[in-house]
Design goal:
Number of strands: 3
Helix content: 40-55%
Strand order of the largest sheet: 1-3-2
Distance between the termini: 18 Å
Order of helices and strands: HEHHHEE
Mean pLDDT: 92
Structural class: alpha+beta
Strand content: 15-25%
Shape: elongated
Length: 108
């Protein structure tokens, strides 16, 4: 979802094609909630991952893309709110990997 041009339209289309009672599951990176680990996670995402990517593949561009698009994406809470506004029900989400990954689920 982080890479779609229009998040709202993408969610609306997914809602449209689901039958009543159908489920959606979204796994994506999410903006980090500020906490004591935030500076370390930021350093890891912006320096460690691109450096390792460059050492292993010879290119760090793809590994810079991930933190940049993650920081530009909506929060997990905001994505859940957008899903509710479209009409999804039984919406939930859980964060993983120190809050950098979120799995959202809902029903039509």
């Amino acid at each position: 979802m982080r890479n779609v041009i229009d998040l709202q339209k993408a969610l609306q289309e997914q809602y449209r094609v689901l039958r009543k009672g159908g489920r959606i599951v979204i796994l994506d990176t999410t903006r980090l909630k500020k906490n004591i680990l935030s500076p370390f996670i930021w350093l890891h995402m912006h320096f460690v991952i691109p450096t390792l990517g460059r050492l292993l593949t010879g290119s760090s561009d793809a590994y810079r893309y991930l933190p940049e698009t993650t920081e530009g994406f909506v929060t997990a809470e905001n994505l859940a709110s957008r899903m509710a506004a479209i009409g999804f029900k039984k919406i939930g989400f859980e964060r993983f990997m120190f809050g950098t990954i979120a799995i959202h689920w809902a029903e039509k």
